[in-house]
Design a protein that fits this description.
Blueprint: H1 2-23, H2 28-64
Helix pairs in contact: 1-2
Length: 66
């Protein structure tokens, strides 16, 4: 359940990033804000992926006893 939630969150963040980019085209000041926002969203996605991988690793270790 947690794994699916993490994957869904990554997808949602990518979608939000795309929507932000599309909605801010043409607004000169807003474009400067979108760059750090997209970087933060990308980093959050990477963090979620690392957490997901770690959770799978721990679960696998517990299931195999080692």
């Amino acid at each position: 359940a947690r794994g699916k939630l993490l994957v869904d969150n990554i997808g949602a963040m990518v979608q939000v990033a795309g929507n932000l980019d599309a909605s801010l085209e043409g607004d000169g000041k807003a474009v400067f804000c979108i760059i750090p926002a997209l970087a933060a969203i990308e980093q959050a996605g990477e963090n979620i992926q690392v957490s997901f991988d770690a959770a799978l690793s721990i679960t696998g270790s517990l299931n195999t006893g080692g």
